[in-house]
Amino acid sequence: MAQNKTQDNRAWLGVLPVMLIVAFSGVIPLMTVVNYSVQDILDFNTRFFVGFEWYRETLTDPRFIDAFLRQLGFSAAVLAIEIPLGIVIARGMPTQGLRASLLLVLLATPLLIPWNVVGTIWQIYARSDIGLLGVTLNEMGFAFNYTAEPLHAWLTLLAMDIWHWTSLVALLAFAGLTSVPAACYQAAELDGASKWQVFRHVELPRLKGVLVIAVLLRLMDSFMIYTEPFVLTGGGPGNTTTFLSQYLATMAVGQFDLGPAAAFSVIYFLFILLFSWLFYASVMRSEEGS
Amino acid sequence: MARIRLQEIAFTYPGASEPTLQPISLDIQDGEAFSLLGASGAGKTTLLNLLSGILPPTQGRIFFDDVDVTELPGRDRHLAQVFQFPVLYQSMSVAQNLAFPLTTRGSTLNREAIDKRVSAIAKELNIESILKRSANAISLFEKQLVAIGRALVRPDVSVVLLDEPLTAVEPSIKWRLRRTLKHVQDELGVTMIYVTHDQTEALTFAERVSVLADGQILQTGTPEAVYQNPAHQFVGHFLGSPGMNFLPSNAFPQPLQRSFVGDGDPETIGFRPESAGLTAPSEVLLSGIVETQRVLGTAQGRVVSMYGLRCGAAQVFVRSPASFACGDEVGIALQRWVGFREFLRVGSNGAE
């Protein structure tokens, strides 16, 4: 059969539409950014090629490094809290009946609220002068003020993110848990396994797939957090809640430093790619090792 | 190891109008290979769940040796179970799987004793070569072997429950697993309760078999007794392929009918296809017309066939080396029969 196949380059025409769509929606915008990142643009007609200058500048910029470390800390804290908490919630959920359905709806609700609304809710809720939470805390003797205290601003942001996104982890883990066959629990029970052993040896191995997805989603998403700190304190007090995306936005939209901002974007993109890949590869490696 | 005693155990699912299990009493000896045989829906799994403590009985008591375990949770009954599909801890190696029940609460064995026990069980099941492999990376057959090993590894195991353990295994290696199980049971003398709907598995594995139907035990006995001398028509019908033939006793010639009367005056006579012979028709024999003939094979140089015969309104099957053609009228000579009245056995001419 193989030798009967005719060579016909017109077949390329068949994939042309897809290539055009991908080019217009993905490749060309990305290349624009890459293009900007190696040039100094003064106005529409005046530009200079500067090579890797903007990259060097960005990577040595103390404000970038600060924002980057802050970002790492925030993502690590979000993952460290949301993943275990989501699993705990999922394990505690009833698996069937009206209560299960109601809980699922309740859990899904925060996921449907837009970022800036979540930010506004918490911005008001935690205010020390009129917010329910802020006033209550102050009445109880904690001098809570997220506009002045960096720690308070961080705690508010973490609470916001946990409130908004733990449900996602919980729902994914819940889906994973429903796939554990009843016989596995029964066997563990008869083997005399403790609650921790049941979790560690029966549930966790079967949750691995969904947890990888949950960690990747939360990692990428928290790494790009923008709206919530912007709404809450605009990145303050000081620069203490200025994360990468906000610094980038200030550069690109606020100051129109397109060259450095483009270099920043590329670096930012590569870091997210790198972290996700590192995580995924290490999980897959441990899979083979076992 | 323990003797298992069920005392008037019954179970009704909450809200159900019909009981799933009628009151059942059963006495399984220490070290016995016991089998529960029944079609699906007969209540086998419910009975198993009562034994393993997943369900509490609606009434009755369960004793392991002389300890009343009715109220004890499954983990405190020291039993082990092998499921239809191999249940393993997939993130562990085979050896870790086998050792796991020895490392959980209440186990006092040290590392050395555990290793010794694991290698002894692995040797018994002939899985020493895969001990270091991941539990994910072995064949289904090996997985079920490891699951069986995990059930046997605890020295204090009171009873091993086997819930249709050959379901997931390919037919071609079923016999291997069955033989291994039987061998291990003989060797270790563990009380085993084997639940299945497959008569071959039950009859070849067990020392005694209970036949369940509609939540009732119809008969308990040795495979031989259950097969040859069914206490209930259903048992005769359910065992064997094809099952027992049943004919109303008044379908037989007068002299035969008179001989039945002395044996409990049955209204139905049952006989197995291999417990009758075919000869030329005669007045003193049951007669039938050959409808179908299927060659089964040869035995001692003679071709054996399964004959389908029409006897009045009923069809019966007889396995015979005699040679007849379709349409022939033949005499059916009963060698061994069982008489029933209202489905229960009232007499027979065979040995008990």
Trace the largest sheet of chain B across and list its strands: 6-7-8-3-9-10
Structural class of chain A: mainly alpha
Order of helices and strands of chain A: HEEHHHHHHHHHHH
Main beta sheet strand tally, sense and closure of chain A:
2 strands, antiparallel
Residue-averaged pLDDT of chain B, rounded? 89
Provide a count of the helices of chain B.
Answer: 9
Low-confidence stretches of chain A: none
Account of the protein in words:
The complex is a heterodimer of chains A (290) and B (352). By secondary structure, chain A is mainly α. Chain A has helices spanning 11-37, 53-60, 62-92, 98-108, 115-125, 132-139, 150-178, 182-190, 195-223, 227-232, 244-254, 258-289, and strands at residues 39-41, 47-49. A two-stranded antiparallel sheet of chain A has the order 1-2. The longest helix of chain A has 32 residues, at 258-289. The model of chain A has no long low-confidence stretch (mean pLDDT 88). Chain B has helices at 44-52, 94-103, 111-125, 140-152, 171-188, 199-205, 223-228, 233-238, 254-261, and strands at 4-11, 21-28, 33-38, 59-64, 67-68, 79-82, 159-163, 192-196, 208-213, 216-221, 245-248, 268-271, 276-279, 286-299, 302-311, 314-320, 329-334, 338-341, 344-348. Chain B is an alpha+beta fold and 352 residues long. Chain B is elongated and about 75 Å long. The mean pLDDT of chain B is 89. The interface between A and B is medium-sized, with 18 and 26 residues.
In short:
Chain A is mainly α and 290 residues long. In chain A, 73% of the residues lie in helices and 2% in strands.
Write the layout of secondary structure elements.
The complex is a heterodimer of chains A (290) and B (352).
Chain A: H1 11-37, E1 39-41, E2 47-49, H2 53-60, H3 62-92, H4 98-108, H5 115-125, H6 132-139, H7 150-178, H8 182-190, H9 195-223, H10 227-232, H11 244-254, H12 258-289
Antiparallel strand pairs in A: 1-2
Helix pairs in contact in A: 1-12, 2-12, 3-7, 3-9, 5-7, 7-9, 9-12, 11-12
Chain B: E1 4-11, E2 21-28, E3 33-38, H1 44-52, E4 59-64, E5 67-68, E6 79-82, H2 94-103, H3 111-125, H4 140-152, E7 159-163, H5 171-188, E8 192-196, H6 199-205, E9 208-213, E10 216-221, H7 223-228, H8 233-238, E11 245-248, H9 254-261, E12 268-271, E13 276-279, E14 286-299, E15 302-311, E16 314-320, E17 329-334, E18 338-341, E19 344-348
Helix pairs in contact in B: 2-3, 2-4
